[in-house]
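Suppose a colleague, Dr. K., hands you the sequence of a protein chain of 155 amino acids and asks what its three-dimensional shape might be. Before reaching for any lab equipment, you can write down a predicted structure in token form. Begin with the sequence itself:
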Amino acid sequence: MTIAMCPGSFDPPTSGHIDLIDRARAMFDKVIVAVIDNPSKRPMFTPTERAELFREIYGDTIDVTIFQGLLVEHARDMEVDVLVKGIRNGIDFEYEFQMAHMNRRLSGVETLFLPTSPSVSYISSSLVKEVARLGGPVSSLVPDVVENALKERLP
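The predicted structure, expressed as tokens, is then:
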């Protein structure tokens, strides 16, 4: 069985994240969504809330975990074979390429880059939060459960 992990902050999960996870599900036997708990950031949603959003979206068809620290240590603990990362543009590639080399050096785990689908390539969590804060429509940018969570969170 080949196990893939899709790591990220996912604050909040977007249609781009869903596209990436769905494509990974079609390629691998098992997909784990790993929500990063980075205490130095000030996210809109707690790691538990972000993980719960994924559980509402996918039910029990994927595993969702929360972790702190080095991704490769968590991947090793979860017996992951490959990390799956979405690439929207050249800036993403430059950053993720460096991280992939470091992760491989630290643990031997490989990283698979998937270019985002054109229909969601412009979506980022930061942009979604900004549009939502300003009262703009986000229904085409996030799943329904995330849209509802944003509406509840923002005044």
